[in-house]
């Protein structure tokens, strides 16, 4: 799965300008299209160095069986700036996507979509570049307010930022902490929330996120 991109920004101001420009392309009003393969993406960071490992795991949408996986290890060039994490992670993730033999129909990021100060988190950025439905599922909320959802699996509450619904706090397992779901591109808040729940039949985090996290850590360890 090849994604082309021009030269990456080198400064925070350039990166923010790119987010503002590309955010106009985001579509979170289109219902999720029929799909067969779902990919989880995650990045592991080396301690004490600039090395990162991007990982992609492709699952069958119905069975959640692993159909393909790929990794890419490289040095991060962009500095850590809150709200600009995509510029640290996207190069490795795009490189890993290029190694796949099974092309995913939907992308699930460990991060945020429109639940972002400029409505353009990692899931939005990747979705716009790939032209595919993309959502973010995060362990904590980055922006917004929400009421605590009920304790039962599947209970959800709107995540609201600056008066707009930007995602949902979703309880994926009974009495566990919620995860925070936000659409990135070509998917609605409601469809993103339903899909995140479908992908988490046993654990708090979706299988896409759990497996990509494990793979990224193994890849980083192998490259050490």
TrEMBL record:
<dbReference type="InterPro" id="IPR007581">
    <property type="entry name" value="Endonuclease-V"/>
</dbReference>
<keyword id="KW-0378">Hydrolase</keyword>
<keyword id="KW-0460">Magnesium</keyword>
<feature type="binding site">
    <location>
        <position position="42"/>
    </location>
    <ligand>
        <name>Mg(2+)</name>
    </ligand>
</feature>
<keyword id="KW-0479">Metal-binding</keyword>
<protein>
    <recommendedName>
        <fullName>Endonuclease V</fullName>
        <ecNumber>3.1.21.7</ecNumber>
    </recommendedName>
</protein>
<feature type="site" description="Interaction with target DNA">
    <location>
        <position position="80"/>
    </location>
</feature>
<comment type="function">
    <text>DNA repair enzyme involved in the repair of deaminated bases. Selectively cleaves double-stranded DNA at the second phosphodiester bond 3' to a deoxyinosine leaving behind the intact lesion on the nicked DNA.</text>
</comment>
<comment type="similarity">
    <text>Belongs to the endonuclease V family.</text>
</comment>
<feature type="binding site">
    <location>
        <position position="110"/>
    </location>
    <ligand>
        <name>Mg(2+)</name>
    </ligand>
</feature>
<keyword id="KW-0255">Endonuclease</keyword>
<dbReference type="Pfam" id="PF04493">
    <property type="entry name" value="Endonuclease_5"/>
</dbReference>
<keyword id="KW-0540">Nuclease</keyword>
<keyword id="KW-0227">DNA damage</keyword>
<keyword id="KW-0963">Cytoplasm</keyword>
<dbReference type="GO" id="GO:0004519">
    <property type="term" value="F:endonuclease activity"/>
</dbReference>
<keyword id="KW-0234">DNA repair</keyword>
């Amino acid at each position: 799965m090849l994604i082309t991109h021009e030269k990456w920004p080198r400064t925070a101001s350039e990166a923010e300008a790119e987010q503002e420009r590309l955010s106009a392309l985001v579509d979170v009003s289109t219902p999720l299209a029929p799909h067969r393969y779902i990919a989880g993406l995650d990045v592991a960071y080396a301690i004490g160095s600039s090395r990162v490992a991007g990982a992609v795991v492709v699952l069958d949408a119905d069975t959640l069986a692993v159909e393909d996986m790929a990794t890419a290890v490289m040095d991060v060039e962009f500095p850590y700036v809150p709200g600009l994490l995509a510029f640290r992670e996207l190069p490795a993730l795009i490189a890993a996507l290029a190694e796949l033999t099974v092309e995913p129909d939907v992308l699930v990021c460990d991060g945020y979509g429109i639940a972002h100060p400029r409505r353009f988190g990692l899931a939005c950025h990747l979705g716009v570049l790939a032209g595919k439905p993309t959502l973010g599922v995060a362990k904590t909320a980055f922006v917004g307010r929400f009421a605590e959802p009920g304790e039962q699996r599947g209970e959800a509450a709107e995540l609201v930022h600056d008066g707009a619904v930007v995602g949902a706090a979703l309880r994926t397992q009974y009495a566990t902490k919620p995860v925070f779901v936000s659409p990135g591109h070509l998917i609605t808040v409601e469809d993103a929330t339903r899909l995140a729940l479908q992908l988490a039949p046993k654990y708090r985090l979706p299988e896409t996120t759990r497996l990509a996290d494990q793979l990224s850590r193994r890849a980083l360890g192998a490259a050490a």
